[in-house]
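quick one before i forget lol
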Amino acid sequence: MINLCEFTEKWRGKFVEADGSSPNSPTYRQCVDVVKQWEIENGWKKITRGNAIDYANNADGQFYKFEKNTPRGVPALGSIIIFSGGKWGHVGIVLAANVRAVAVFSQNYPIGDVCSTRWFNYITPRCIGWLTYIGP
């Protein structure tokens, strides 16, 4: 297992390619790769299919709890946050959050960007919700 601080320091400023779908093209590395790498390094059951926007529906309920975004909802640190927007959406890992904004560790936001931390409000892009790992 790896803690959140170690994970972000390990990958900050780099590209993650967790699933082998774009091994030779850094500009096509996807946001889902960061989430998959987070799962791998923690020994969690992976979400193995779909684009970022699909994660809310594709996560195995035995291992992940989906929480829909609400005006008073705040995701826990290490949760996988899911945003709509564009054709594929966006996902990342929650580093800090309150009811107004969330710090997210991700890549490919903007398109082609390396792993970094950005603050998002829950509106632009629109936050659908987040997944919290509950499995063994």
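fyi The CA atoms of residues 86 and 129 lie 16 Å apart.
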